[in-house]
Design brief:
With 415 residues, the chain is α/β, with parallel strands linked by helices. It has 3 domains: 2-216 and 259-266, Aspartate Aminotransferase, domain 2 (3-Layer(aba) Sandwich), CATH 3.40.640; 220-256, no CATH class; 275-408, Alpha-Beta Complex (Aspartate Aminotransferase, domain 1), CATH 3.90.1150. 37% of the residues lie in helices and 16% in strands. Helix 9 crosses helix 12.
Length: 415
C-alpha cells in the first residue's frame, strides 16, 4: 500500500493550494460558460507564449493529444513510423489501430531518449513520422533529429509529457519538432485537476484541423454551399444558427470523425495558476535530484544521468543506473523498499508489451533499452510535494543502501 512508504512515489507531481482554490471560486461565482470559454483561451495563450509556438490547443488528456496528433499525420497503409521504446504506452498506442509498419528505435544509454545514430539507420523512403519522448524531462537531441527528417518530409511528434520546464539550447520542448503533445495528469510537472493535455503546432492548417477534431466536428474538406436551401429548399431562419454549417457548407472528403476533447474552464483556471508555479515546482524537483546525484556520485557501480551544457532537465523522473554485477540492481531496489522508499521503474520497453509482441515485435529489437531496463535502470521519488523530512529520509536511505550493498559484494569477492 502507498501509505506504508515513508517516501512514496508520486501520486501528485505538483502542488495545489489557495491560489488554485481562489481561481475555482471566482469561476464558479461568475456567470461565464464552464466549457470552451474565455479561461481556456487565456490558458492556451499563456501556454503558446511560454513554449514559443503559433498555436496551443488544450484537450482532455495527454493521451488524447497524442491521438489527435497522429490523426494529423494522415497515415496510409504501408507507411512506416519510427517510435521510441522507452516511454509510456500512450505514445504509440494509436498506431495499433492503423495499417502502418512501426519500427522501434533503440535509445541512448545515458538519456534514454531516441538515439539519433540508430534513427538514421531506420529511416527509409516509406518513413512518414517519428514519435519520440523527452524521457524524464531530458530533451532528445532535436537538432540532429530534425536535420535528418526535415528534408525528407518526415513529421516529428514530440511527446512532452515529462518535459514541461525543460530547455534545449535556449528553446523549449514542444517547439523543437513539428507537433508537441503535453500531459497535465495528476503526476506531471503541472496539473489541470488530474487530467488534461495540450498540443502545440506552428502550422495554421493543422491548428484548424485540431480545433475541429477536439470540438466534435468532422475533420474533412468543406466548401461553401451554392445556396442556403441546399437541404430543404428553405432559407435559414435566425433561430437555426447552430445548424448553419449544414446549410452553408458541403463536404467533399472525410479524413476522420471528431470527438469532444474540450478542456473544462475549471481545469483551465487551475492550469493558469499552475503555469505561475511552474518554475518553482521544477526547481524543487531539481533540488531533490541534486541531493540524490551527490549520493550516487560517491558510490561505485553507479552511473548518473548528466545532460550536456545547454540541456536543462525538468526532472519529471529521477533516474540513475546500477552498473555492476548481475543482481545488484535488484538488491538495491529491494533494500530501498525495506527502508520505506517506493520505487517504480518507468517504463517496460514498449516493443515487449503483449499487444506489440502480437504485432511481431520482441526481445532483441532494442538491446540497449532492454539491458538498461532489466538490469540497471532505477527511478526514485522526486516530486515537489515531498517534505524536507521525506527528502532527508530518501537521501539517507539511498546512501545506506548503496554503501551496504557494495560492501556486501566486497565481502563476497574476498571469500
Amino acid at each position: 500500500m502507498r501509505g506504508t512508504y515513508a517516501v512514496p512515489y508520486a501520486s501528485r507531481g505538483s502542488i495545489l493550494g489557495e491560489a488554485e482554490a481562489k481561481a475555482l471560486e471566482q469561476l464558479i461565482g461568475s456567470d461565464g460558460s464552464l466549457s470552451a470559454g474565455s479561461v481556456r483561451d487565456r490558458f492556451e495563450k499563456r501556454f503558446r507564449e511560454h513554449i514559443g509556438t503559433r498555436h496551443a490547443l488544450s484537450v482532455t488528456s495527454g493521451t488524447v493529444a497524442l491521438e489527435l496528433a497522429i490523426h494529423l499525420l494522415d497515415l496510409k497503409e504501408g507507411d512506416e513510423v519510427i517510435v521510441t521504446p522507452q516511454t509510456f504506452q500512450a505514445t504509440a498506442q494509436p498506431l495499433l489501430g492503423l495499417p502502418v509498419s512501426v519500427r522501434f528505435c533503440d535509445v541512448d544509454p545515458d538519456s534514454l531518449n531516441i538515439d539519433p545514430a540508430t534513427l538514421k539507420s531506420l529511416i527509409t523512403d516509406r518513413t512518414r513520422a517519428v514519435l519520440l519522448v523527452h524521457y524524464g524531462g531530458w530533451t532528445a537531441e532535436m537538432d540532429e533529429i530534425m536535420a535528418m527528417t526535415r528534408d525528407r518530409n518526415i513529421t516529428v511528434v514530440e511527446d512532452c509529457a515529462h518535459a514541461l520546464g525543460a530547455m534545449y539550447d535556449g528553446r523549449r520542448p514542444g517547439a523543437l519538432g513539428d507537433i508537441g503533445c503535453f500531459s497535465f495528469h495528476s503526476s506531471k510537472n503541472i496539473t489541470t485537476l488530474g487530467e488534461g493535455g495540450m498540443i502545440t503546432v506552428d502550422r495554421d492548417d493543422w491548428a484548424e484541423r485540431l480545433d475541429r477534431l477536439r470540438s466534435n466536428e468532422v475533420d474533412g474538406d468543406f466548401s461553401p454551399a451554392r445556396h442556403q436551401g441546399l437541404i430543404t429548399g428553405r432559407e435559414l431562419l435566425p433561430w437555426m444558427k447552430y445548424a448553419s454549417s449544414a446549410y452553408e457548407q458541403v463536404c467533399s472528403h472525410i479524413r476522420c470523425p471528431g470527438t469532444n476533447a474540450t478542456l473544462s474552464e475549471a481545469a483551465a483556471a487551475v492550469g493558469l495558476v499552475q503555469m505561475d508555479r511552474l518554475h518553482g515546482l521544477v526547481e524543487c524537483r531539481r533540488e531533490v535530484a541534486r541531493r540524490l546525484d551527490e549520493v550516487v556520485a560517491r558510490h561505485p557501480y553507479t552511473r548518473l544521468q548528466q545532460p550536456r551544457p545547454g540541456v536543462r532537465h525538468a526532472q519529471h523522473l529521477y533516474t540513475f543506473f546500477v552498473d555492476g554485477p548481475p543482481g545488484l540492481r535488484e538488491a538495491v531496489i529491494r533494500a530501498l523498499d525495506v527502508r520505506g522508499v517506493e520505487v517504480q521503474l518507468r517504463y517496460l520497453p514498449l516493443h515487449l508489451l503483449p499487444e506489440w509482441r502480437e504485432r511481431g515485435h520482441g526481445l532483441g529489437e532494442c538491446p540497449v533499452a532492454e539491458k538498461l531496463w532489466f538490469s540497471q535502470h532505477v527511478n526514485l521519488p522526486c516530486q515537489p510535494g515531498l517534505s524536507d523530512q521525506q527528502v532527508d529520509h530518501l537521501v539517507a536511505a539511498l546512501d545506506d543502501v548503496l554503501r551496504s550493498e557494495v560492501k556486501g559484494l566486497s565481502c563476497l569477492s574476498s571469500t
